[in-house]
Amino acid sequence: MPITYSHQELAAFIQERKPLPANWRSQFLTKLKRSHKEEHLVLTGDSGNTFRVIIRQNLFNPLDFSVILAVQVPHSNEIFRLRRYNGGSHEHTNQIEKVKFVGFHIHSATERYQAEALLPDDGYAEPTNRYNEPNGALQCLFDDANFEEP
């Protein structure tokens, strides 16, 4: 059975204070995959939730990237994507609203998209001009999701 979170629970995950360790940049673990590099950092929020920040970058297309905030699902090996800051390499369609756009966009998990069994939990996205590369997307994530730098 899929994990589902209410609007209030999703908001609480985003609002939970997430202190970064003093040397957080050096704590990212890197994996090279076929056509992209993936880095991730695991940290604990003030309420005890375990969060993962994942940065995926295509090795050939600088506009093809994602910066992801996920929460560890308790008592499982699963993670649940809360936010995803995507590069401008592809078209996105919000399936429920039938809205299409191309460019940089931010995905958010919603209760409504979770209710649609065939759609990704974080399938809803909005276009943005707040960043144009992965480090800018990471800073937007930190600003939006209550990360606290040392």
Overview of the molecule:
The chain is of the alpha+beta class and 150 residues long. Helix content is 17%, strand content 39%. The longest helix is centred in the C-terminal third of the chain and has 11 residues, at 134-144. It has helices at 7-15, 111-115, 134-144, and strands spanning 18-19, 29-32, 36-44, 50-58, 65-72, 79-86, 91-94, 99-102, 105-108, 124-127, 147-148. 25% of the residues are buried. It is built from 3 helices and 11 strands. It has a 7-stranded antiparallel sheet, covered by helices on one side. Strands 1-11 form a two-stranded parallel ribbon. The chain has a two-stranded antiparallel ribbon with strand order 7-8.
Radius of gyration using CA atoms only: 15 Å
Give the N-to-C terminal Cα separation. 39 Å
Largest sheet: 7 strands, antiparallel
Give helix % range.
Answer: 10-25%
Average of pLDDT: 94
Low-confidence stretches: none
Total of DSSP H or I helical runs spanning 4+ residues: 3
- Name the strands of the widest sheet in spatial order: 2-3-4-5-6-9-10
Q: In percent terms, what proportion of residues is strand?
A: 35-45%
> Given the helix and strand composition, which structural class is it?
alpha+beta
SSE series:
HEEEEEEEEEHEHE
Query: What's the number of extended β-strand segments?
Result: 11
> What is the subunit organization of this protein?
single chain
Shape: globular
